[in-house]
Design brief:
globular, mainly alpha, about 130 residues, 6 helices, single chain
């Protein structure tokens, strides 16, 4: 069986959005650091800083603030802060995710992007998205 990367939006995001790439690199490296019982590595923190810098710029840019890739990166923030034992931060990011989805017109506005819709439901369910 072969894996078709064209069937996944996540590979499209990797190919087209630096912010998403850095968020994936951050989450992957953080996971490896965590499983090895290590503190966050310099590489992990570099990708985290780049992700957060790009996200802040994106949030200041009207339509891009609620784009699919921006939502996907905020989902990563929710996941990573929950994984690293920062429930207050995770809750704050979930609140931001909820607001972004509402600005898009609600969860049904993501029907054309089922993969993202499902991921948001998984991490945003606390808010009844």
């Amino acid at each position: 069986m072969t894996f078709d990367t064209r069937a996944s939006i996540w590979f499209d995001y990797l190919r087209s959005d630096d912010m998403y790439l850095h968020s994936l690199m951050w989450s992957s490296q953080s996971y490896f650091d965590w499983t090895q019982g290590s503190s966050p590595s310099r590489l992990s923190m570099t990708h985290q800083a780049k992700t957060l810098d790009l996200l802040q710029k994106r949030l200041d840019d009207g339509l891009m603030a609620i784009s699919d890739t921006t939502l996907a990166v905020v989902v990563t923030l929710v996941m990573m802060t929950a994984l690293t034992g920062e429930p207050e931060s995770a809750t704050k990011h979930m609140g931001g995710l909820h607001k972004m989805v509402q600005l898009r017109g609600g969860l049904h506005s993501l029907e054309r992007n089922k993969q993202l819709q499902i991921k948001i439901c998984r991490y945003g369910g606390v808010f009844g998205l």
